[in-house]
Amino acid sequence: MNPKLKLALRLSTAVALLCLAANVAFCAMVPKLGQSPAELAKRVADLEAYIHNTAPSADGALAGSSGPGHNGWLMTSSALVLFMTLPGLALFYGGLVRAKNVLSVLAQCLGIAGVVTVLWWAVGYSLVFGKNFNSGILGGSEYFFFRGVDSLPNTDYAYWVSQNVFAMFQLMFAIITPALIVGAIAERMKFSSVLVFVAAWMLVVYFPLAHMVWGITGRMNGVFNAGASIRAIDFAGGTVVHMSSGWSALVLCLILGPRLGFRKVPMPPHSMVLCMVGTGMLWVGWYGFNAGSALGADGISANAFTTTTLATAVAMLTWALLEWSFRGEPSVLGFCSGAVAGLVVITPACGFITPGAAILVGVLAGAVPFFACTKIKNLFGYDDALDTFGVHGVGGTLGALLTGFLATSAVNPNLGANLGGILGRTLWIEQLKAMGLTIVLATVSTVVLAFGVKALIGLRPAPEEEEEGLDLAEHGEPGYHHE
Known about the structure:
Elements: H1 3-33, H2 37-52, H3 68-96, H4 102-129, H5 163-181, H6 191-214, H7 238-256, H8 272-290, H9 299-327, H10 332-346, H11 355-380, H12 388-406, H13 415-419, H14 427-456, H15 463-468, H16 470-475
């Protein structure tokens, strides 16, 4: 026999004997370490619970512990969702406005991020995810100023994710939601008025709505609250994020009125390059938004990742093909709009539906918002500057309804706990109820808040400032220096 082969056989035999000896020694030590077979079984069960993202045993060694893998994914997802706003949405919107207003959009996104973060720390997180009010509309006061928000999991929402990480993840949703409204009122609302309106809107619209849909005692949390009066579902924000911002944006742009020169002078995007870059960032960040909403790196998260990709790609292609058919050429703006529409419509459904259903969602996501942005807006003549209502309002509403028809417990077993009797039957009726309540809350509140801000400090800059551009008029600096 070859000497090298003999040496390899001897080494492998020695390693095997060492492993066997170690195993025998460990088994011999178990009784001395006080580990009974039952205790070992409990430890193994807790490890399996970690793998499956389910609850560990209440008296086990891992009870109250965060899991590094799930925690790591949620921290990554939090960064991805912030990346959607800064710089994704800022560049997407910034490229679509005229050059004289590009910095105003960036400033609004930055300002909103700051205001919302402070509100979230002070009261927002607690009002959404607390529960000591025992209310279906607002959560509680137990987490005001992040009191008790530490690295232990809040098991009302996630078994293996630290509560401070969960709070940061949800903060990023709270930041991007009012920032979406900026698209409808771009180029014609004072910076100070935007910040005051957003602060009030978060308290009156976002915090109550987010609790109703996602809070453990929320009246529209059909998945996890057995006592919900409206048994609706929303995986990642169709109602909470897109419908609320989209419908509020429509009302606010109507109250504000059109831009100076609207329909009289051309107002093309100043940089489709920035718009496309922003779109790519939104798409990448949206994986944190949707797949992260499983609150763990598990099979439901993987499904959300898959359905998000499929629906977005199909919607992008559908929008471009429709534009090609009706206008004779597919534009980069059409590709970008279709991609964002696909991301919006799949959001409430991504963790509940199959990949095949995601293809259908993508087709409808490319077609319905396309007609909303190109036909309905022209028919009624409102100045939704960057199509926030057409994409987010209409798209979010469409997504919420489709979720009611397409959701299945085969994808997400959590649906079977409280919704087994209506899943695949009348869930869409519950979705209609949630959609109606969301629209009423968003639109009525926006009317009251907008007129309140108008009476307090005004909404629009002076006509000469608007004509000059908000970059110089409100921020004292231009977006570009042409020398």
